[in-house]
From TrEMBL:
Coiled-coil residues: none
Keyword Coiled coil appears in the UniProt entry: yes
InterPro entries in the cross-refs: DNA_recombination_RmuC
Family recorded in the similarity comment: Belongs to the RmuC family.
Keyword match Ligase: no
Protein name: DNA recombination protein RmuC
Keyword annotations: Coiled coil, DNA recombination
Known function: Involved in DNA recombination.
GO biological process assignments: DNA recombination
Pfam families listed in its UniProt record: RmuC
Length: 356
């Protein structure tokens, strides 16, 4: 009998300890770990999102500051290019092949200063074919946002212009100037006849830029024949010099920067949506954790009622000890006090009920 009583006493005491230890501390630790596992990835995504926004703003400010500086030096650069062009034209007079190579070199230098990326935003001497299989190789093909293309041609003869500049005979100068205008008009007609719109993989370029590497060469031609620019424009050809071409290319570079900015904004918006979804998932997980905590609390309260409530097990086990059961341990005093309070409340409730 004593062994049975001691066994009951130990089992009920162990039951109380397990409820406090296993159901409370372990569950709290488990939920703390679960919440941490949810919050850590969210924190990383928020940090990544903030870094991307900061970098995007910094790049935007930096690009605008660079553009301002480049515009300040634009005029000086163009004057230098023009001076070099005049000197080289004098050195290369009469040799069309050398003139063509030199014109391509000047064009390449303007492209390098524009900010556009070679073999990405512009390509030099690409091969194309028309519907008849005839090949064409434009000097430069500029890629614009929206899959548009723009061709630059630099094959303009400057022999007549060089003679115009270096001949002191006024009557001869007039003849050289007329030949220079004819040379430019001839190149305009040649470009118009090339029909770059019919080339495969070209996606119909809007117009062709005819590059004249010397500012003054175009100026004297247009002064002599004011309709030169308009005649070329009517054939979808725009005559440009180093100054005007650099301005056009800078505009295209800004268009590409805006396009990249737009793509970054789309990426940021996508990340923001993903961040919102992650936060929504977090709130759902927290609500589930709350429900689990409520379930465990309800289970714990039910067990405690069995221990301390009406007809509780603690009073019954303690009564066995008072009847003589030998035990080496003592039940928790707080549990004993709680069971007594619940017992007194039950008695008081019954007394009130009988009195009424």
């Amino acid at each position: 009998m004593e062994q049975l009583q001691e066994r009951f006493s130990k089992e009920f005491e162990n039951l109380a300890n397990k409820i406090f230890d296993q159901k409370s501390e372990k569950f709290t630790l488990m939920n703390k770990e679960n919440i941490q596992n949810i919050l850590d990835p969210l924190g990383e995504k928020i940090k990544s999102f903030e870094q991307k926004v900061d970098k995007n703003n910094t790049d935007f400010i930096h690009r605008h500051a660079q553009l301002g500086e480049q515009l300040v030096h634009l005029n000086k650069q163009n004057l230098k290019i023009s001076e070099e062009a005049i000197n080289l034209t004098k050195a290369l007079k009469g040799d069309n092949k050398m003139q063509g190579n030199w014109g391509e070199m000047v064009l390449e230098r303007v492209l390098e200063r524009s900010g556009l990326q070679k073999d990405s935003e512009y390509f030099v001497q690409q091969n194309f074919q028309n519907e008849n299989g005839k090949r064409a190789m434009p000097d430069v093909v500029i890629h614009l946002p929206g899959d548009k293309k723009m061709i630059i041609d630099s094959k303009v003869s400057l022999n007549a212009y060089e003679r115009y500049m270096n001949d002191d005979d006024e009557s001869q100068k007039s003849s050289h100037l007329k030949n220079h205008v004819i040379s430019v008009k001839k190149r305009v007609d040649e470009l118009g006849a090339k029909n770059y719109h019919a080339l495969y993989q070209m996606e119909s370029p809007d117009f062709v830029l005819l590059f004249i590497p010397i500012e003054a060469a175009f100026a004297v031609a247009s002064n002599s024949y004011p309709q030169l620019y308009n005649d070329a424009f009517d054939k979808n050809i725009i005559i440009v010099t180093p100054t005007t071409l650099l301005a056009v290319l800078k505009t295209i570079d800004s268009m590409w920067q805006n396009e990249k900015q737009k793509l970054n904004a789309i990426d940021i918006a996508t990340q923001a949506g993903a961040l919102y979804d992650s936060f929504a998932n977090l709130t759902e997980d927290l609500l589930r954790v709350g429900k689990q905590i409520g379930t465990v609390q309800s289970t714990y309260d039910s067990a405690m009622k069995k221990l301390t409530g009406k007809g509780n097990l603690i009073r019954k086990v303690e009564r066995l000890k008072k009847l003589g059961a030998k035990a080496s341990k003592q039940l928790d005093t707080k549990l004993l006090a709680q069971s007594q309070e619940d017992l007194d409340e039950n008695i008081e409730t019954k007394s009130k009920t009988l009195t009424q």
